[in-house]
Amino acid sequence: MIVEKTSHKIFFGDDYSKVALFQKDKVVAEKKRIAIEIFGGKCYICWKNYGSGFAFHHKKYDPNRKKHSDFKNTIEYNAYVIPEIIADPERFRLLCKICHARIDQPRYGYLGHIPKDRLDRLYEVAKETIPGPRKTRKKGGESTPESPTKQ
Q1: Is 139 a domain residue?
Q2: SS3 of 48, please?
C-alpha cells in the first residue's frame, strides 16, 4: 500500500511540535497506521506484533533535529517525528520496547553504543555458541543440569 506523504499536514496541521493532548487519539492512530502500512506491524528484531511501547528507532540521529527530551510529552514528540517517518522511512526501524531498550539503554545492555568491530565479534561468538543444557531448580535451591530428553 502506498502511503500519502502529505497526509500528516492535514492530520496535524502545520505546527507539529505543539499538538495538544486532546489530539492524543489521532496521534496514536496515525502511529499505528504507519507501523502497519510502512513497517509491517512487527518489531524489526523479534517480530512481536505492534502494541503499546513500540518506538520508531532512528538508525542515525540528526543533531539538527529535536530529540524526545525536547518535548513535554510523547504525544508532541510523535506528532513531530511522524512526518519525518513518512517522508523517509528508511531512516527508522519499528522496535518493541524490549528490543529498543537493548539498543539505547545502558541498563539493558546498551548494544547501540558498542563499537562496530566489537559488536561484530560479539555477534560472531553468539552465532557460534551452542547452548549447553539448561539448569533446573530442585527443592532446596540446588541447580542441576537438565536431564537429556527421553525418547
Answers
A1: yes
A2: coil
pLDDT score recorded for residue 18: 54
Look at residue 130 and tell me if it is in a domain. Answer: yes
- For residue 2, is it within any domain? no
Output the average pLDDT for the chain: 78
- The amino acid present at 111, given as its one-letter code, is L
Burial class (CB in 10 A: 0-12, 13-18, 19+), 147: exposed
Domain region containing 90: 7-145
Report how far residue 79's alpha carbon sits from residue 13's, in angstroms, rounded to the nearest whole number: 10
Q: Distance between CA 110 and CA 43 in Å, rounded?
A: 18
Task: Give percent of the chain above pLDDT 70.
Answer: 70
Count how many domains the chain has.
1
How far apart (Å, rounded) are the C-alpha atoms in residues 74 and 91?
19
User: Which of the four pLDDT bands, split at 50, 70 and 90, describes residue 88?
Assistant: very high
